């Protein structure tokens, strides 16, 4: 009686393996040669300063082109001239005052924004009612640029320090909420089911599974919050500021001091760079349990 199943034709080992060996040789030989060339090229390239190698190379090129006269001073002063401008302002006491004022503003605004963003993000991530309460409003606010909010805050709160601090907190709170909410909702469902199957209570589930699982997303939100707080600081210090890095830039623009304008921009950039390095250190400390950080 026929079963309807036709057994496959059996080939000899030589007939089966020989074509595969030839196909393997044909496929891997060029890749091996290309791979060896790429490996030699990578070994020749050196990155002595890591991610800062390219910025330092740009600074060196900038300095050389300025010394040769290829880059006019009115367009971009030499890096050494910018450093000298900073030294001069520091000696007369202006740079220290402006820097302290800006750091105080961004510190207060960042603290307020992170507190609101973390609190609402956790509530919305854990509770469906919290999502309905906060998510729609935050998604709408997220599409509004900081500079568009500035006139409204001036109407509401005037042009004093409160407006500047609230603008910075606005820029810091929204990205923290969005990333933390997405991180909590994105925790692997299998981990939650395993914890429930093991009889873990709700409080322990939140503290041992949900929040640790959302930690990478929290750090991403922190990186964005720090960056947007600096952007908020830039926007805030353009309005009736009598101290701060933005005030320094506006005053330098009035007197056509391009070197001082660049100095203010460099300070903003350094603040953002230090904030990013702070988050990188937190990642190495808090995410050691992840496989990608074990080798670091």
TrEMBL record:
Superkingdom to which the source organism belongs: Bacteria
InterPro entries per record: MetI-like (IPR000515), MetI-like_sf (IPR035906)
Keywords carried by this UniProt record: Cell membrane, Membrane, Transmembrane, Transmembrane helix, Transport
Statement: the UniProt record of this protein carries the keyword Cell membrane: yes
Secretion signal span: none
Protein topology in the membrane: Multi-pass membrane protein
Coiled-coil intervals: none
Chain spans, region Disordered: 1-33
Annotated ranges, domain ABC transmembrane type-1: 99-279
GO cellular component, one term: plasma membrane
Protein localization: Cell membrane
Family (UniProt): Belongs to the binding-protein-dependent transport system permease family.
Protein name per its UniProtKB record: ABC transporter permease
